[in-house]
Each structure stands twice: as structure tokens, then as C-alpha cells.
Amino acid sequence: MSTSDSPSKPEVADKETAAADKVDTFTQIHTKSIFPTTRVETDDPTPSVFLAGSIDMGEAVNWQAAITKSLESLKLGIYIFNPRRVNWNSGWPQDINFKPFFDQVDWELDMLERATVIAMFLPENSKAPISLLELGLFAHKGTLIVGCPKAFWRRGNVEIVCKRYNVPMVDTLEELVTAVHDRLAALGKANKNATAHGKGAPINDGTNKKPESE
């Protein structure tokens, strides 16, 4: 073989650089917050957490920011679906025919159905009627984890629903964060084991490359 038939060093270097860039780009994809009404592809296998729980027209404590910061520390390739929007207008009519309101609620329901984990927090000074509705809708799915302080006004009802449907329930936001961490870690191991046997997709934690299409 002549030297002209051998790949040139610049070409090899270019390929190596391209591969390195691909890996670097992938490992830099960590937690990504998704707000209404941005959607992700339905076939996107990326694990996700929906932050259900009290907003109370923007008046409830912003617990979503605290749990988001904690989840970001995991440096996993996950989506966080956060329904709390900065441009929410409490004067919007609660009417199915009012498009901005409909789009918000429709997005929330779609993302709740899609989420790998639903983290629900019910602060003790909130009423959370919509969150209680969502608890009833999704208690049976096996994706819900509930944080409900002992002083929450309907804690007894929440406890009974969680017991009936085997929904993990804790008392504080800190315990909820830990429970979500543990669930994601368990799912990560399960997904990696499933992938080793040709099933499922791994959590993108920076050590796994995206599966190539066959």
C-alpha cells in the first residue's frame, strides 16, 4: 500500500476531534428545565421529573426553585417539567375557551402523563385544590412521590390515598428531594441493567453514549 492510500494524520485528527466534541457536548447535557408550554418529542427517552404541587396563582412559596437546584446537582441528563411560569396572569379567566389558560392546563396534563417521576409538594399554608385533583388522577400510575407536612389542611385525605395506592409520602421538602434522588438513582440502575439486556434506554448521566439507531 502506498503512502497515498493511508489516511492522513489531519483526517484522523479531525475524526478524533469530532468524536471528542460529540462526547463533550453529550456530557454537558445535564438537567434542563422545561416551562409551559414548551414540549419535548413524544419518543424522547430522556427521564423527567414533573414538579406538581402548590402554586396558588403564584402566591405559594417557590419550592420548585429549591428542588430544581437540588436536582441540578445530580448532573443527570433529565428534564424538569416546571408548571410555575413567571408570566402567569392571575386575572386569566378559568375557561376552557380562553386559549392561554387551556394551553397551560393541557400542557400540565400532558407532561404529568409523560413524566418518569412526579414530585408533589403540598405546603402547610396552601389549599392546593388543583394539586389534590392531580393526586387523584395520577396516584395509580406508580410515578408519584408526595411531600405533605403534618399541618397541611387535608393531610389525612392525602395519607389515605397514598396508602391505598402505595404512593411514597414524606413530611418535608428535604425528604421529598431525597426520595426523588433515590427514585432517579434506582431508575438509572434499572435502565442500565435493562440496556445491557437489550431493553430500554439508559439515563444520560454523562457516562453513557446515546444509542445509535439500527
TrEMBL record:
Alphabetized InterPro entries for the sequence: Nuc_deoxyri_tr2
Pfam families linked to this entry: Nuc_deoxyri_tr2
Compositional bias (Basic and acidic residues): 11-20
Region Disordered, residue ranges: 1-20, 191-214
Domain of life: Eukaryota
Name of the protein described by the UniProt record: Nucleoside 2-deoxyribosyltransferase like protein
Organism the protein comes from: Pholiota conissans
